[in-house]
Amino acid sequence: MNTSSALTAALSGLGFGLSLIVAIGAQNAFVLRQGIRGEHILPVIAVCAVSDVVLIAAGVGGLGALIASAPTLLMVTRYAGAAFLLGYAALAVRRAVFPGVMTTANAASGTTNESLTAGARTEPPQTTSASGTSRTATMTAMPGAVTDTAQRAPIGTVEYESAGARRGTSVALGATVLTCLALTWLNPHVYLDTVVLLGSFANTYAGQDRWFLAAGAMLASILWFTALGYGGRLLAPLFARRTAWRILDSAIALIMLTLALTLLLP
User: Fold this and answer.
1) Are 230 and 36 in contact (CB under 8 A)?
2) pLDDT tens across 57-79, in order?
3) pLDDT bucket at 48, cuts 50 / 70 / 90
4) Which positions ≥6 away from 19 have C-beta within 8 Å?
């Protein structure tokens, strides 16, 4: 085995894989949203990365030629994917119109003094000193929760709950995983890009080098989804405002709708 050629193939796979995956799409939008919410991040990353590993291996192994010769399969997948994307776009529109609830707690009194939606969960009580003044402000684990620190003293806590997390509950892990699987496996572009295109590119390399290229592409997927999922947490402070969630969900709805139309009107 030529170490130099193997390394070149792996780096080519890494670059080619990133060029295919780093794009605005349904899967990336979903992973980003989960990252911002801080909800089921690791399972979502695992589903996306493992799916890509399987598809890349299948493409390099020769499945790409089979898919390219089965237009009926691609047509069925295209319409099923379009229907799912349209449904997800409708849900994103609903979230944008009704972005969720916010609760505010007054740290001075240690009690929740406002609830914008019935059934919204209350903030934990805050500890007070003997004089009754607030010593600490407790932040909930919800992403986007912020504390007003005006005049260098904790005054209150603001919590955002998305439409899927009302009444103190989050979207179930099973539902999240199923949505992620659908966004991945019902998207014909995944097969065309990951299996057919990358598989064809890998087969231009001789011998075992094509598998080193495949390994590079697999690494690209793992790195990208990990960075997107956990990097989304950095945006959490921005999404303490429901306006930010409205903008994000509106953008997601537009992305899903556009992708669905590209599938229906090729």
Assistant:
1) no
2) 988 887 766 766 777 777 777 78
3) very high
4) none
The whole-model pTM stands at: 0.64
User: Position of tokens 């009690």?
Assistant: 111
Contacts of 147 (CB under 8 A, 6+ apart): 137, 139, 154, 155, 156, 157, 158
190-210 pLDDT tens trace: 887 888 788 878 877 877 888
pLDDT in tens, 160-194: 444 444 433 467 999 999 999 999 998 887 887 88
The structure tokens 């030529």 sit at 2
Neighbour tally for 80: CB within 10 Å: 16
At 247, phi and psi to the nearest 5?
A: -65, -45
Extract the tokens encoding 193.
């890009």
Q: Could you write out the DSSP letters of every residue in 23-40?
A: S--HHHHHHHHHHHHTSS
Residues 6+ apart with CB under 8 A from 25: 187, 189, 255, 259
Length of the chain: 266
Non-local CB neighbours of 265 within 8 Å, separated by 6+ positions: none
- Mark 107-120 as b/e (b = at least 16 C-beta within 10 Å): bbebebeeeeeeeb
DSSP secondary structure, 145-181, as one string: -EEE-GGGS--EEEEEE-GGGGGG----HHHHHHHHH
